[in-house]
């Protein structure tokens, strides 16, 4: 199979999907699906000829004969997947197994706010979906259009005015070995109304040895003075591929903090876009890639300052060993009306072997004259003097290198406010570095 054959299979699958909708085919939401599918069929999958995909080759993932839909439900025992949750604290949980909602493993609520599924929102909150679904402020990429066409399941979070979610929300997607090679397309919609707040953690995990490709989309809308923390843990199986699109829209005085931790998986592409629509909004974008072997991760960000008196701070780090490759492509756009903008962007990278590589492309496009904007990037190796110092104190070479890398990545982890999540990330980093520091963190 090649990309054209996969596109044809997806087109045929969409016809089957559409024929099973009955009366829903005439709804405004499905009209958006159909328009998105038409755009995808015209554009196809992105290639390295596209400027935004210049350093990212999707072609190797498109040669598999993926299953588009899963029949029936696959049950999992909690003991089998317990390690993938934050068990140190109580959380709401929205769990999907092979693209289907698992009520047995989930803990949702409609008390004071709605934490449930996209499919449930289709039945209970159609007016919210009609208002927000597919409301992109830029031309969607073909992969985002593809997700819009097939959107029928994922997480739905709506927090009403001045409501504060009392515990974090975990969104977890599992793909089992019984599913075979799978093409998954979850859709999340998060709406925080004026003065509300929430913390959300999301991860995807392939439990078998089959190839998987997940094409996920999250649309996030923050009302005035709303506050959202959104964290992604990406340490999937070696045969798993992930394309993740997240669009975040900020109103007056809103604040969003995102942190993405890419520590495993065959292929990861994160498209993260912030849109400042009203003054005095702030955003913090953090990221850490820690890869080895033949792993690949592309951190692609857009921060669009459209109005005055807004602030964004972007801080990404990468560590690449073996034949791993990373990409950082960060664009900050300051439009003519966005006076008094304060924007900062920084990307730091370490290469641990001759075969490891990183392409970094920080960009500033400024069309206003009263702004404070800066960016910078570095690509280097471990500090030999620091390594010599640790070795001279009797610390073996492997542990000395790991300790330096740990300190390098920990600067990003420390920016996470949830202690339980920080501890989980510290353990993942130690596992990735193949050390046991026995630190009290």
Can you describe what's shown?
This protein has about 450 residues and is of the alpha/beta class. It has 2 domains: about 5-280, no CATH class; about 385-440, no CATH class. Helices cover about 25% and strands about 35% of the residues. The strands form 2 sheets. The chain has a 10-stranded mixed sheet with strand order 2-1-5-8-10-12-14-16-18-20, covered by helices on one side. Strands 3, 4, 6, 7, 9, 11, 13, 15, 17 and 19 form a 10-stranded mixed sheet that branches. It starts with a helix and ends in an 8-residue tail after the last helix.
Number of domains: 2
Give the strand order, joined by hyphens, for the main sheet.
2-1-5-8-10-12-14-16-18-20
Percent helix: 10-25%
Rg, Cα atoms, Å: 21 Å
N-to-C order of helices and strands: HHHEEEHHHEEEEEEEEEEEEEEEEEHHH
Category by helix and strand content: alpha/beta
Given the structure, what is the number of helices?
9
| Largest pleated sheet | 10 strands, mixed
Overall spatial form: globular
Q: What would you call the quaternary organization?
A: single chain
Low-pLDDT parts are: none
Q: Give the overall pLDDT as a whole number.
A: 94
Describe this structure in a few short sentences.
The chain is an alpha/beta fold.
Secondary structure layout:
Elements: H1 3-19, H2 28-43, H3 78-81, E1 92-97, E2 100-101, E3 113-117, H4 118-124, H5 126-132, H6 142-150, E4 155-159, E5 169-175, E6 182-184, E7 187-192, E8 197-206, E9 212-222, E10 227-235, E11 240-250, E12 255-264, E13 267-276, E14 282-291, E15 296-305, E16 311-320, E17 325-334, E18 342-351, E19 357-366, E20 372-380, H7 384-392, H8 397-413, H9 419-433
């Amino acid at each position: 199979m090649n990309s054209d054959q996969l596109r044809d299979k997806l087109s045929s699958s969409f016809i089957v999907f559409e024929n099973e909708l009955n009366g829903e085919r005439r709804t405004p939401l499905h009209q958006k699906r159909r328009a998105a599918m038409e755009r995808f069929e015209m554009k196809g999958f992105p290639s390295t000829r596209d400027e935004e995909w210049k350093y990212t080759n999707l072609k190797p993932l498109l040669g598999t004969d993926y299953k588009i839909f899963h029949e029936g439900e696959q049950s999992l025992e909690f003991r089998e997947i317990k390690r993938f949750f934050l068990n140190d604290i109580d959380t709401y949980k929205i769990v999907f197994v092979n693209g289907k909602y698992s009520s047995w493993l989930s803990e949702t609520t409609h008390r004071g706010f709605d934490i449930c599924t996209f499919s449930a929102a289709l039945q209970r909150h159609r007016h919210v979906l009609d208002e927000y679904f597919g409301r992109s402020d830029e031309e969607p990429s073909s992969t985002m259009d593809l997700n819009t066409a097939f959107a029928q399941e994922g997480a739905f979070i709506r927090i009403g005015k001045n409501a504060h979610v009392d515990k974090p929300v975990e969104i977890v997607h599992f793909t089992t070995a019984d599913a075979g090679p799978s093409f998954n397309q979850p859709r999340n919609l998060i709406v925080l109304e004026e003065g509300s707040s929430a913390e959300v953690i999301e991860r995807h995990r392939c439990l078998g040895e089959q190839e998987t490709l997940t094409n996920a989309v999250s649309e996030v809308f923050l009302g005035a003075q709303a506050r959202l923390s959104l964290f992604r843990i990406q340490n999937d199986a070696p045969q798993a591929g992930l394309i993740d699109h997240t669009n975040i829209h900020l109103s007056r005085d809103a604040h969003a903090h995102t942190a993405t931790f890419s520590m495993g998986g065959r292929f990861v592409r994160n498209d993260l876009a912030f849109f400042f629509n009203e003054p005095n909004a702030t955003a913090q974008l953090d990221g850490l890639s820690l890869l080895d072997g033949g792993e690949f991760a592309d951190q692609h960000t857009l921060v669009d300052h459209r109005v005055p008196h807004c602030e964004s701070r972007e801080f990404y780090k990468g560590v690449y060993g073996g034949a791993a490759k990373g990409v950082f492509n960060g664009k900050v756009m300051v439009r003519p009306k966005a006076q008094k903008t304060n924007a900062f962007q920084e990307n730091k990278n370490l290469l641990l072997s001759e075969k490891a590589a990183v392409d970094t492309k920080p960009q500033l496009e400024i069309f206003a004259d009263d702004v404070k904007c800066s960016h910078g990037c570095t690509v280097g190796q471990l500090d030999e003097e620091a390594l010599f110092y640790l070795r001279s104190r009797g610390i073996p070479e492997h542990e000395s290198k790991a300790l330096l890398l740990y300190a390098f990545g920990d600067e990003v982890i420390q920016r996470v406010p949830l202690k339980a999540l920080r501890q989980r990330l510290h353990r993942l980093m130690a596992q990735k570095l193949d050390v046991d520091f026995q630190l009290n963190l």
